[in-house]
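Local shape tokens

___
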Amino acid sequence: MKTNKIIITSLLLAIGLILHQITPGIFLGMKPDLLLVFMILSITITKDFKIALITGIVAGVLCALTTTFPGGQLPSVIDKTLTSISVYFIYKSLKSNSSLKLSSIYFLGTIVSGSIFLSSALFLFGLPAPFLALFVSIVLPTSVFNCFVGFSIHKLIATNPALKSKFINF
């Protein structure tokens, strides 16, 4: 593992944690998961499986510290760890590096994350509402939001020559 990949990952997770913490509840008190956006950004920038796994574990612990979901600590760790592995393999399996690929990574990553989180919370503690209602009202809108935010941040880094040389080219 390169030290610069670890440093960039930790900086991105710190930014994601701060944004996750200060973002107010938008719909019925639920917040978009900006930590997830920065976790996926880190995975797509570093392109390293070991870093992706560590990123998922660390993001899960950080998300568990800031979750407002009742009993959401353990499901957060499970969710982020499994999502990081899934996102890494989804990213590696898609061949082109197009705008559609980047958008779909963020969209699918959020769908996977929300599904794993709700499933593990349902299995471990129960849900405050039916699974399908939470999935449709929280996970799908968050997926669309994360798709646009993640794509925008990724393109911002990729189009800025100074940032591109520091972040994208390892």
Observations:
- Residues 99 and 151 are 8 Å apart (CA to CA).
- The chain has a mean pLDDT of 86.
- The first helix runs from residue 3 to 22.
